[in-house]
Amino acid sequence: MAAFTGGTFGSGERLSTTGFLALGLLTFWVYSVLRFAAALRAHLERRWREMEARDDLKGADPVRLAAFRARGFALSTTAPWCAAGLSALSAALVVSWFYQWILVGDVSNYDRIVGAVGVSSALFYSGALVLMLWALGAVRRHETSELLVREIGQGALLSEPAALGDELAQRWERKSNEVVLFLVVAFPMVFSPMLGAHLFLSGTVWGHELTLPALCFGLAAVYHVWGTVLLVGLYNGHLAEEAKHAGAGKLRPAGDRPMPVQAGASGTDGGPGRELVAIMLTDMFGYSKAMERDEARAYAKLVEHNRIMRGAIAAHRGREIKTIGDAFLVIFRSAIDAVDCALTAQRAFADWNLGRDEDDRVLVRIGIHLGDVLITGDDVFGDGVNVVARIEPHAEPGGICISEPVFEMVRKKLQLDVSKVEGAKLKNIAVAPVLYRIRLGS
Q1: Counting C-beta atoms within 10 Å of the first and last residue's C-beta, which end of the chain has fewer, N or C?
Q2: Distance CA 40, CA 47 (A)
Q3: How far apart are CA 435 and CA 425, in angstroms?
């Protein structure tokens, strides 16, 4: 029975394998092709309506928006109808030679029977080939486009979709390998009836006279079940991938794990609450210049940056407040968690940069401050936010800069190699805290 998970992003009716197995077999996959295409088309239309309603896509260039929709949220009917047509022709030929050979018993024309079996097998395999490659490409393009716009908003419209980090790339590499393996192994399986017809008509018998027909039917059954599970798995696997990112909000698909709030705080009583939190602000060094040189390459770096940052934030119980281009604003209950998160992220970026060209490296500056701020449901306000915005530029590319209140909180709990920032001035901050830089490797 199909499972239904609701009506927003990450939700959808999962396809039932049972229907595809039964009706797909009876119709020589014509049902499978048309049912899959209809389900995917409905899914893309639903998701596009959700995307159009996003604030960060309102006011986008209509031409770019239309191109983006065509790339990841519209479905061409050419391939599925071609696959369905090939399958239907195969079915017609199978009915013809089955009637003539099995029911009527006409085995006098060897060439015609073997030829008809071979052509029907070729048509069926061609239909399956078109279907599987089309389905793989369509779902992959949609998933990449969908998650990309959730990562970087309107910026996703400016270029071809970049890879969304190693995890997604590995997922689709596995899916592609599964489809290729199926198509390679399926080739001799699909043509087994032709071999069976040749052996039978030439008088070859293996043991019992039903051995060859049973073998052919067995291979056909394996092919049908394997292909059906693979096809349905492409759709249901995409829904599962969406569901994994569903709770992350507008631009927070991977790592936003909201902190628990105290009673009456953070707007839980209808208004903003005041809390003492560790505030972290990050910024990708040289991102604007990288965008000027090569948009697609810069986006690929941004996506990897977002993946690493959100992984570190989630692991250290941070709450991602917002992203502004290449910058993250995050709050933590604990200054230790904030510094640990920054160290984890910077070490991950350092590992990512190993062996890469200078233009492909991701260098991030991180500033951390401890401040009393006003927290609403989805934003923070106050002097502490202004202070951390002035602290972050004092960090080295690939480094961390913290204020003295943060340093005092973590100095006895974490072993840090720090240096005082002499003569640091924070613009428009009347009473600026002393700053310290953390050197990695500590």
Answers
A1: N
A2: 11
A3: 9
Residue with tokens 């079996």: 117
Which pLDDT score, from 0 to 100, does residue 268 have? 45
The DSSP line for 319-344 is EEEEEETTEEEEEES-HHHHHHHHHH
Low-confidence ranges of the chain (pLDDT < 70): 1-12, 56, 97-111, 113-114, 151-166, 190-216, 245-272, 441-442
DSSP assignment of 4-23 = B--SSTT--BPPPHHHHHHH
Q: What is the DSSP string of 405-441?
A: HHHHHHTTTS--EEEE-TT---TT-SSPPPEEEEETT
Place of tokens 């696959």: 83
Question: Distance between CA 177 and CA 2 in Å, rounded?
Answer: 27
Nearby residues of 283 by Cβ (< 8 Å), 6 or more positions away = 326, 327, 364, 365, 392, 393
Answer yes or no: pTM beyond 0.70.
no
Residue 408 has φ and ψ, to the nearest 5°, of -65, -30
